[in-house]
Backbone:
């Protein structure tokens, strides 16, 4: 809990992050959210003191600046704790409900394979070992409920996946046709002849699914313990590894053996935007927000996006950029950044949701540190159906490794739906 104290008596020990006891109870989540709200109130109070000193003396007290930095750090940690607890509370239990006979047989055969290496049951279910289109190492499909749980966890843990469109395919890539010149159409009278329209210029976007892998390890003692839920263990072990790799690729990926991130595409000033490039709005100051009215560039960024995209738009930035923006106020003295209104909801900036993606670049000369757009229409994530596991008891004895693979692709599907803030003169 963060206490409001005088500047003269502020010490590092007085600015503490909220203590989280357990993810299991709703009371702990509510307490974490209450601590987060108190932290933001303390942040506003201290920042108001800093602003008042700047207006009256031309400079802020050093102790006030240090106190604000400590509160800001604690506020970030409190926010992460709230998100973690909300995420864990949102995870559904595996295996709820009765599965069809075949699914139950698959689940039992898969459990036998993971625990003891017995693959006869899975061999009987799968007519051939997977080699074409699934990686050279083969493996066995995980049960449907395990795959569903892995994807559900990824949608909660991977920031870009959570706001993008997600499409599941059974082939190695997804292709989408689009018109480069707009649809052929026109106006005619009720009895007037219908003139022939010019044919559309069509092009194709391709989103290949690349292989993503993780290799969790377990002791044989863990696998022999019948109480351990193997399905939940696998989903939990691969969740973070997959989420970290996906998050980085969806932002900065170069499209080589991984998805292509939206920052990897060519950019152009928003006023000269053309298809295939992402429009940018410059701050007018290299590596920073303008010293005077810094929030004006955020307004410019918002209105660089067309109204049809703006109504469902989201800000994306990393923690350091968010820390700088958190100090901004509007003309009425209200903070532009606001904490979540309830559990499970994102923070907002200028009433738009704000998603924190640590893979976004820090503020720097010519950096593209803030993205704003309708990512549901702008960015596409492609999942190839099927998650596979290959059991390896030999490489790291006495541990058993589980080479887990899934195939995922991604890229921009509507270049007009995303705008970037460029920190350049």
Residues:
């Amino acid at each position: 809990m963060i206490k409001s104290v005088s500047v003269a008596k502020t010490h590092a020990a007085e600015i503490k992050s909220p203590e989280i006891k357990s993810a299991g109870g709703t009371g702990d989540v509510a307490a974490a959210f209450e601590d987060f709200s108190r932290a933001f109130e303390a942040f506003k109070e201290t920042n108001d003191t800093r602003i008042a000193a700047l207006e009256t003396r031309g400079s802020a007290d050093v102790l006030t600046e240090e106190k604000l930095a400590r509160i800001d750090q604690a506020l970030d940690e409190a926010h992460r704790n709230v998100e973690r607890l909300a995420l864990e509370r949102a995870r559904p239990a595996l295996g709820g409900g009765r599965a069809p006979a075949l699914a139950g047989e698959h689940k039992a055969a898969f459990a036998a394979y993971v625990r003891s290496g017995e693959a006869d049951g899975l061999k009987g279910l799968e007519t051939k070992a997977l080699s074409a289109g699934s990686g050279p190492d083969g493996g066995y499909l995980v049960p449907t409920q395990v795959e569903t749980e892995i994807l559900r966890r990824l949608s909660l843990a991977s920031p870009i996946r959570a706001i993008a469109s997600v499409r599941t395919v059974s082939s190695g890539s997804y292709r989408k046709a689009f018109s480069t010149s707009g649809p052929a159409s026109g106006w005619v009278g009720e009895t007037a002849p219908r003139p022939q329209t010019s044919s559309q210029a069509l092009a194709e976007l391709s989103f290949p699914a690349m292989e993503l892998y993780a290799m969790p390890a377990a002791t044989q003692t863990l696998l022999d313990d019948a109480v351990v839920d193997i399905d939940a263990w696998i989903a939990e072990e691969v969740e973070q590894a997959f989420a970290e790799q996906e998050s980085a690729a969806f932002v900065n990926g170069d499209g080589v053996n991984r998805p292509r991130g939206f920052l990897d595409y060519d950019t152009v000033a928003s006023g000269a935007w053309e298809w295939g490039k992402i429009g940018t709005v410059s701050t007018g100051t290299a590596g920073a927000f303008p010293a005077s009215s810094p929030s004006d560039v955020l307004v410019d960024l918002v209105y660089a996006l067309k109204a049809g995209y703006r109504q469902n738009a989201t800000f994306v930035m990393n923690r350091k950029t968010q820390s700088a923006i958190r100090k901004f106020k509007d003309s009425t003295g209200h903070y532009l950044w606001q904490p979540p209104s309830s559990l499970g909801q994102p923070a907002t900036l200028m009433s738009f949701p704000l998603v924190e993606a640590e893979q976004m670049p820090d503020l720097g000369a010519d950096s593209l540190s803030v993205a704003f757009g309708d990512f549901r229409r702008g960015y596409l994530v492609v999942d190839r159906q099927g998650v596979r596991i290959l059991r390896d008891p030999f490489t790291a004895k006495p541990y058993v490794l589980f080479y887990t693979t899934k195939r995922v692709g991604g890229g921009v599907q509507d270049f007009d739906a995303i705008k970037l803030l460029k920190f350049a003169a």
Q: What stands out?
A: The radius of gyration is 26 Å.
